[in-house]
Every structure is written in C-alpha cells, then in structure tokens.
Amino acid sequence: MQTNFRFYVLIFILLNFLLSKPLYSQGRIEDYKRANAVDTLFKNKVFNTPESFHWLNETEFWYKNNAENADEYLLVNAGLKSEKPAFDHTKLAEELSEVLEENIKSSRIKISGLNFNEDKSKLEFQNDSLKFSLNLSDYQISVIDTIKRNRRGQGYWGSREKGEETDPVPSPNEQYTAFVKNFNLFIKNKKTGREKQLSFDGSKGFYYASRILWSPNSKKIMAYKVKPGQDHKIYFVESSPKDQLQPKLQSRDYLKPGDELDFKSPQLFDVEEGEHIPVSTELFDAQYSIFNYEWFDDSSAFTFEYNQRGHQVYRILKVNATTGSVKAIIDESSPTFIDYSGKRYRYDVEGAREIIWASERNGYNHLYLYNSNTGKLKNQITSGQWPVREVLEVDDENRQVYFTASGMDKDRDPYLMHYFRIDFDGKNLTRFTTENGNHKVTFSPDHNYYIDRYSRVDLPAVAVVKEVGKKKPIMELQTADISALKKTGWKMPEVFTAKGRDGETDIWGLIVRPTNFDPSKTYPVIEYIYAGPHSSFVPKEFQSQYRTLQPLAELGFVVVQIDGMGTSNRSKSFHDVCWQNLKDSGFPDRKLWIKAAAKKYPYMNAEKVGIRGTSAGGQSAGAALIFNSDFYDVAVASCGCHDNRMDKIWWNEQWMGYPIGPHYAESSNIEHADKLQGDLMLMVGEVDDNVDPASTMQFADALIKANKDFELVVLPGESHTSGGEFGERKRRDFFVKHLLNVNPPSWDKIYK
Predict the structure, then answer these.
(1) Whether 32 contacts 742, CB under 8 Å
(2) For residue 28, which of 728, 608, 555, 514 has the smallest C-alpha distance?
(3) Residues 202, 183: contact at Cβ < 8 Å?
(4) Distance between CA atoms of residues 224 and 265, nearest Å
(5) Is domain 22-43+485-751 in CATH 3.40.50.1820, yes or no?
(6) In this predicted model, what pLDDT tens digit does every residue of 531-568 receive, in sequence order?
(7) What is the 3-state secondary structure (H, E, C) of 507-559?
(8) pLDDT tops 60 at residue 717
(9) Can you give the three-state secondary structure of 422-487, one letter per residue?
(10) Is there a contact between 563 and 535 (Cβ–Cβ < 8 Å)?
(11) CA–CA separation, 752 vs 749, rounded Å?
(12) DSSP label of 155
C-alpha cells in the first residue's frame, strides 16, 4: 500500500512537471538562429528559372538563364526550334574586362537590352550606364552611348489648379494658345498676340483649372472649374530626426471618409464666337471624381468619366459640342460597390465609335462592347462563371482582345492565371495556356508564337515555347532545378482547400511548416492575414522563400495564409461580403479552414492560434481578438487602420461606402475595444503617412480605458511598416511567449 502511494505521488509530480513545461522544445535559441538564417540558406538555390524574355522579331528572342554554375544568355529561333548561346561568353567577358578595367567573369556577365542587327553580325547591349556595340566576327567592342539616368520627375497636386496663370496650351492648328489667368480662361492669337477672355465666371472660390483640352478642329475648348473641398491634414512628430537634436513636426494632406471633396464642372467654349456653352451638372453632381476627358475625332463631342461618391454609380458621359447637352453612354450601378480601383477598364476602339468596357453586372468581371455615340450595348464580349483579370492588348484591326482570366477549370485553384484571345463579337475564344499552373506569357510581335512560363507554389517553374493553333509546346526551354534547395531541408508549402461559411464555396490557402518539421510534435498555428478587398493575396507562384511565413514557422509553428470571402478575383458575391463590413475579413471562412486543416493534420493545434498582419491586415489582426476571440488567442497588429473613419478616403469609402453611417462604428476595433480577449501587441511607425498613426494610438487609448492589457511598440522615424528588424524580433518573441509558453531567449545570444 505504501509502495503504491509513493508510486502515485511520483506520477503526480512528474505530470505536474511535464504540464508546466512545453511538451516539445520549440522557441529555442537554435530555432531563432534558424529563423534568421532561412533567407540566406534558401537564397540562390533554385536554377533554370528565367523570368523575362525579349523578342527580337517575329521568330527570335533572347533570355537570360540562371544555370547552376553560370548565367547564360541564350538566343532562340522559334521557327527553327533552335537554341544557342547569344554570344561567346568568354570572349565578351575578356573584352568587357579590358574596357571597364575590372575582372568580369564569363559566368556572371551583367548586361541587358540585347539587340542584334539584321544579319546577326553585331550585337548592342547595355552595362550599367554604358551602351556597347559588339562585332561578333572579331569581338571588337566599342562604347556607342552613355545612358543618362534621369531622376523621376515630380508631379504637382493642384499647385497650378487654383486659377493662377498656367502654361499656354496650343491649339491643334497652332493659331491659338489657351491658358488660365485671374481664375478665368483666356486665348491668345499667336500671330497678333491679342488676348481674348472666354470666361467671366471664375473666382478664387470656383476657379478655372489648368486642364484645358482643345477639340481636334481647334474650334472648341473643354476646360473645367474647380470648387475646392476641405483641407484635411494629419500631423506627427518625428522624435529622432537624423539631422538635428530637436523633434520635427510633420504634416501631410490627407483626406478621410466623409470629408468634402473638390467639385469639378466641365465647361465648353466656342472659340470663334467667344461663346460659353452651358453644361448641366445634373448627371455628375454627386461626384467623387470626374476625369479622363476625350474629344471625338470629328470634334462633335467629348466624353469624361464620372465616379459617384459612394462608388455605386459610375458613368461615361458624352457632352454635345454644339448644344452642351450631357448624355450617359455607359451607366453602371451596383447595390454594393463598383470596384473602380481594381477592375475599371475602358478602351476606345480606334477608327470606330465603340468602347470596350468592363463590368461585374452579371456576377463576374467581363467585357462589353458599346456604341460610344448612342450608348447602346452592342454585345457582351466575354461571359461565364469566371472573371477577366486583365486586358493585355486590343487589336483594333483584327477586332480581337487579348486578356487573362482565372477560375475556368473545375477542381483547380480558381486564382491561377491563364491567357486568352476573343473576337469583339464574343466569338472564337482561343485559349493559350492549359497546364495546371499560374502562367506568364510573352507573345511574339505578330502573336504567332509565345513563351509560356508557369508554376505553382508546389510546382517549380517550367518555360516552353508554343505556337498558336498547336496544342503541345514546340520547344522546352527550362525546367527549374530545386535539388540544391531540397538539400537545405526546405519543405514544399502545401496548397489546402476547405469549404467556407456557406458549406459550398472552396476557400484556398497555404500551409508552411518548419524545416525541422516533426509530425509527432504539436504546433500552434499562426495566420498571416491581409484581407484587403482590393485583391487576393495567397501566393500562386513557386518561390524558394516566403519571407512573411517561413521564419515564424522555424520557431515552432505551422504558418498559414488564406484568401477568405470579401477578397477579390472570384465572383462578385464572394467579393461583396466586405461591403460596409470590413470587420468580417473572411473570419468565418478562415476559422473553418484552419479547423479543417487541423482535423486532417492533428499536429496543428487549432486551440492555440495566433495571427499577424500589417495595414489592412493590422486592422484584421486586431479584429481577430475583438470580434473573433472565440478562436484566436494571440495577435500582432502593425500600422493597422483600426477605425475606417481614420484612414484615407479612397480606400475606405470604396468598401465602406458614403455617407458615413453606423456601419463604420460597427467595424471599428476602437469602438469595441472592451471586447478584447487574448494577448495583443500593437505596432506603429510614428510618421506613418499611409495609415494615420493616430488610429493605433486611439485603439491603445480605448483599450486602456477598458482596462485591457496589451503591448504597444512605437517605432521612431518609421513610416508604414511591419516593424523592420526590431519589430520582427518583438513579434517573434510575443508569439513564442504566448503560444509556446516559452520565455524567449535574450537577443544578445541570438544575434551575436
């Protein structure tokens, strides 16, 4: 009896000891060092992955290949199905070494812009700031030009829009110039020098702007007046400037949701008669913006685009040049939002009164052909339960559209990009890519041949040459070699799908495991979130490094990334989940996805889940512990917009709408700070001019008032950031401490 009692006491002590310690050693110094090393460890370990191809003519192109032991410049003739070195690498390296007076290795020549003459006897190329000509018969080299690297020009934001005198705009017939002076529109006869005032209604509070557009026949002018909206600045103190001891006060012009905007009013003038023709504002009086003014070739009318405040109405308007009457030739509306910032597409067909226009009106993003004179819809160009992703090119002569699309293939990742061509009338859809991968195509100038480079996160890149009309590739160029990468212990990410909140829609995501992964261990889960409705974000191409995911995994976590409902590039209904509801962030889908993954892989601990994000992802990371603390335990939110009334106008009104209503407060982390459960770290750059840093500070203030514990990391001198090196250290430590229940090792032991 006594022996049994002692035995049970020993078992009790042992269990208490085990339960007080992490079950497996994770979050150790060696894990931190491995997390720091993975970027370097995986770098330059994948070969034969050319990324760009350069057509020289209809059949020939060159590309640079990163072979294991050398960079190769290769010349391909698609017609002959041949490939050879573009030049003798050894001879060129010798000549360059002599000219540049440095040792150029033949295996690592850095040149660009290769171009051959017609008979391939000479080669032109660039090296840094020099342009060379190479005689391929004797490899004599000469400098033919010095490339000037101009600094990017600075635009101006209305500095000349305030009715001040502007630079003269010449008429097409070169008889006149038009300009703004004293808030009004003037013209000047170039021959006589005589000025004539055309407008008399401009004033400091409603002035003529610098945008002046002559009709092609030089008889009419379109100009517009501006009634300025409100001025809204954000302020921050740069505490530790590099050039002085004392802090600096900084400010930025920064409009926020609900602010009053400039009102622009197009004006029409008859130059010969000096007549100001009235243009009614009725069809564009609730404007968010109007822009893209274009005259018809025959000067009979001009068009412009109108985006209504709230982004639920979008129009192309035509103004009759004789009467000034305004007509909507395209009138787009939506009960939720029109994705003007991501899916707007307009193309005016050359030589025809036609417009190609993109719309999600039937549930997916598709193309439509309009008569631009009457506004009548001629036909729908593309159709189906899949979205057009991008229009690549419009061939006016052959009346064809080249575009990318995704989601055509059942049982495949609906985000993978494929290439197509279709006639203006919606017939003869031609598909250029079929392989199960994310494609990037480079067409020959006549579009008879094309290079197709494709991959997936779990499929290394393949590059082939194809000919239009043939099902199989005519040449194989390169297949990525990842054998050196595998030797490092690198683990292939896993594409994982699970049903979303409706029980029907597939939600797609990615699982990343540590290089020392052991299925017998238990791993807390960390989600990297970015749920901005403007796109989708889970990687689709093969990469050796996933820098936001892999280092965290190395500390002893399984890291995931998911595109939930409310993000873009699927159906309109999938996207509409975000409408006036950014707090949703796809969380109902994300939680189901992680649970499904944990059910399949028991080593994933769905009872210990962390989340991290920046910007819109920072808002979502905060929302995880405000609105979804039933599932998420730990969050790190960097530079988050924690109340959509505090962030920039264009992004937030796009998804949350206008006017500002109670739904803004309903999505606010700040308004609901008292609901916080779990461990939260807030991180913010003190001079963030993307997301007002006051958003984070107000969230912190609300948490303090609600007696909630959290950590706040303010980064001196930093703008919009995930935290940089210091922030990354803090983030890793926070997850190790609160998800692994391990006290992080001291930094001096990790980073020395």
Answers:
(1) no
(2) 555
(3) yes
(4) 5
(5) yes
(6) 999 999 999 999 998 889 999 999 999 999 999 999 99
(7) EEEEEECCCCCCCCCCEEEEEECCCCCCCCCCCCCCCCCCCCCHHHHHCCCEE
(8) yes
(9) EECCCCCCEECCCCCCEEEEEECCCCCEEEEEEEECCEEEEEEEEECCCCCCCEEEEECECHHHHH
(10) no
(11) 6
(12) P
Cα 370 from Cα 331, distance rounded (Å): 11
What's the CA gap between 175 and 370, in Å, rounded? 36
Q: Which of 659, 640, 636, 639 is nearest to 649 (CA)?
A: 659
Q: Which of 615, 614, 613, 595 is nearest to 605 (CA)?
A: 595
DSSP β-ladder status, 634-638 and 679-685: parallel
Collapsing DSSP to helix, strand or coil, 90 comes out as: helix
Q: Could you say which DSSP state residue 151 is in?
A: P
Task: Bin 274: left if φ > 0, else alpha if -120 < ψ < 50, else beta.
Answer: left
Phi, psi of 126 (to 5 degrees): -115, 145
Q: The sheet that has 60-66: what strands, in order across it? A: 53-55, 60-66, 71-77, 82-85
Question: Three-state SS across 304-356?
Answer: EEEEECCCCEEEEEEEECCCCCEEEEEEEECCCCCCHHHHCCEEECCCCCEEE
Integer Cα distance of 109 and 327 in angstroms? 59
DSSP 8-state secondary structure symbol assigned to residue 51 = -
Centroid of chain to Cα 354: 30
Cβ(569)–Cβ(387) under 8 Å?
yes
Cβ-proximal residues to 2 (8 Å cutoff; 6+ apart), any chain: none
User: Distance (Å, rounded) from C-alpha 510 to C-alpha 69?
Assistant: 32
In a 3-state reduction of DSSP, which class is residue 663? helix
Instruction: Using DSSP, state whether 37 is helix, strand or coil.
Output: helix
Q: What is this structure's pTM?
A: 0.93
Domain locations along the chain:
22-43+485-751, 53-146
Peptide bond into 241 cis (omega under 30): no
Would you say residue 702 has pLDDT above 50?
A: yes
* 178: number of Cβ within 10 Å: 22
- The answer to whether 378 and 369 are in contact (CB under 8 A) is yes
What is the per-residue pLDDT across 406-428, written as a single tens digit (0 to 9) for each? 999 999 999 999 999 999 999 99
Q: How far apart are CA 150 and CA 481, in angstroms?
A: 39
Question: Burial letters for 192-204: b for 16+ Cβ neighbours within 10 Å, e otherwise?
Answer: eeeeeebbeebee
